[in-house]
């Protein structure tokens, strides 16, 4: 199931690099329980969170990422490092990020 979801989202995101549907972000938020999805989503997270049209859904996705990341897993160790490296531009996003990481 995980490979089907990852393959589908990769195809969709490769074709639609500029305009991503909001429903895709919602679906990815639900699928964040899968480690492959978490690592793949982080590559595009910074783009989505700074896009005004996708900001709200990207923030929700960030919360699900933070909730599902596990400290003990090797894959999620890299995920946590990538979450910490996110560059956020506004105070609102920084505050939201701090809440999500807690």
Structure described in brief:
By secondary structure, the chain is mostly helical. The chain has helices at residues 2-15, 22-30, 35-50, 55-68, 74-84, 91-101.
Question: Could you walk me through the main structural features you see in this protein, from its secondary elements to its overall organization?
Answer:
This protein has 102 residues and is mainly alpha-helical. It has one domain (2-9, 21-101). The chain is 74% helix and 0% strand. It has helices at residues 2-15, 22-30, 35-50, 55-68, 74-84, 91-101. The mean pLDDT is 81.
List keywords for this structure.
single chain; 6 helices; mainly alpha; 0% strand; 102 residues
List the helices and strands and how they pair.
Elements: H1 2-15, H2 22-30, H3 35-50, H4 55-68, H5 74-84, H6 91-101
Q: What is the terminal separation in angstroms?
A: 30 Å
Radius of gyration: 13 Å
Work out the helix count: 6
Beta content comes to under 5%
**Low-confidence region ranges:** none
Number of domains: 1
Give the mean pLDDT: 81
| Secondary-structure-derived class | mainly alpha
What is the N-to-C order of secondary-structure elements (H for helix, E for strand)?
Answer: HHHHHH
Multimerization state: single chain
Helix content: over 70%
Number of separate strands = 0
Please outline the major beta sheet.
none
The 3D shape can be described as: globular
